[in-house]
Specification:
By secondary structure, the protein is an alpha/beta fold. About 45% of the residues lie in helices and about 15% in strands. The protein has an eight-stranded mixed beta sheet with strand order 2-3-4-1-5-6-7-10. The structure holds guanosine-5'-diphosphate (GDP) and magnesium ion. Guanosine-5'-diphosphate binds next to α1.
Length: about 375
């Protein structure tokens, strides 16, 4: 099937100031630029505009000079990444497929309950509105702070969760202006331990257990608060996906960027996981049809994609590119789910040979998600 498509994905990252958001973004980006020799890379990741330069500056500062980024360099920013097939030929470039990932970084003030005046509240609501189209949200638990509260982790966790709930309270009226709940809202919330290198022995299952043991009521309270925002609340997951993240190994005076955990599962998490989830919700019939359509998990997928691409031909598919891409992408995700690792590797290689970029990408990302589960870095809500 010829391709000429753009798939859009969005991820929102919430974490207190100092919890590791800037380092995470730079490590994620820099290592994708400087991938090790060996396995042939499938794609090229590129940040749009000046974000490329800034992220590389921070990354190289860490990698070469062991210099951590200055505090609050860029809070509440969005970064748009473009993922394209690597080594694309000149004559293919115009009709090449692309995955566009928008990454929203939320400032620490979301955890400090600081907005008091009307204009501060409106400001907060404005930044919050940006995330409404996100498919996945990461909620960071700061591994350093958790460590500092050894034995009384519940105190830190209570502070973390209740600060965020307070901020949601502040924006709720503003966001639900007519009192109507939202259809479009991040429905997959992953709780991630940042700075996981400070917890070298901890598996993600143990992290999940720690949170349930110390903060079950806080998790439940935040889930209910988020549910106040959305319609169709069976199609929602908070507190059931967990992830370990380490952007680098930090020791006094030294940053070793080659030692990371969970970073290479971020793209699969943003691109493939929400589609897997939506397919499941759709099978359970808890997902509203128009939302299913947006992400392309519609029953028509199998039917429509081949027809549309046949009728329009690869050159003229552009306008409908986004809808078609979402559907094709979703069809690939459905096809690849539950396949064993070896088959996924096979699909990837075959698709690469045929230069079917999106298909190869889905095969690779599906494999990486499964791998992260096997490596005890990711727990997926099933
Ligand atoms: N051990 C460890 N420390 C980290 C990691 N990421 C960040 N840090 C530390 O946390 C500090 C704050 O990180 P930063 O990304 O600026 O936090 P932000 O305010 O959430 O953007 C850094 O200067 C590092 O000292 C990590 O993966 N492991
Ligand atoms: Mg920052």
């Amino acid at each position: 099937m010829s391709e000429n498509r753009t798939v859009d994905r969005q991820i929102a990252v919430f974490g207190q100031s100092g919890s590791g958001k800037t380092v995470l973004l730079s490590s994620f980006y820099g290592t994708a630029q400087n991938s090790e020799a060996g396995e042939p890379q499938l794609f090229e990741l590129r940040a749009k505009d000046d974000r490329h330069n800034i992220l590389m500056q921070i990354y190289l500062g860490m990698k070469e000079d062991s210099k951590a980024p200055a505090a609050d360099r860029f809070d509440s920013k969005k970064t748009v990444f473009s993922l394209k097939q690597k080594g694309i030929r000149l004559n293919e470039a115009a009709k090449a497929s692309e995955v566009r990932l928008t990454w929203f970084d939320y400032p620490g003030e979301w955890f400090e309950g600081s907005a008091t005046t009307d204009s501060e509240r409106q400001d907060k609501a404005r930044t919050f509105r940006n995330l409404l189209g996100a498919d996945v949200a990461l909620f960071l638990v700061d591994g350093q702070k958790l460590h500092d509260h050894a034995g009384e982790e519940e105190r830190y966790l209570r502070y973390l969760f209740s600060g965020f709930i307070e901020s949601l309270n502040q924006v709720k009226d503003e966001i639900l202006a007519d009192g109507k709940q939202l259809k479009q809202f991040p429905r997959n919330w992953v709780i991630a331990l940042s700075k996981a290198d400070l917890w070298p022995e901890l598996s993600v299952q143990e992290f999940e257990n720690l949170l349930n043991k110390k903060a079950a009521s806080d998790i439940i309270a935040l889930r209910s608060k988020l549910l106040e925002f959305i319609e169709h609340d069976e199609a929602f997951s908070f507190g059931k996906d967990f992830l370990l993240l380490s952007s680098a190994k930090f020791t006094p005076g030294h940053i070793d960027i080659s030692q990371r955990k969970g970073i290479d599962v971020l793209l699969p998490l943003a691109c493939v996981l929400p589609v897997q989830r939506k397919l499941r919700w759709q099978n359970l019939k808890v997902l509203p049809a128009d939302l299913a359509m947006r992400i392309g998990t519609n029953d028509l997928v199998q039917l429509v994609v081949p027809i549309v691409s046949k009728v329009l031909g690869s050159q003229r598919i552009n306008n409908r590119g986004v809808a078609v891409a979402a559907m094709a992408f979703s069809a690939f995700v459905e096809h690849m789910a539950d396949q064993p690792q070896e088959s996924l590797q096979g699909f990837r290689d075959e698709a690469m040979q045929k230069r079917e970029f999106l298909k190869a990408l889905v095969a690779e990302f599906t494999r990486k998600l499964d791998q992260a589960v096997d490596d005890r870095v990711l727990v997926r809500d099933l």
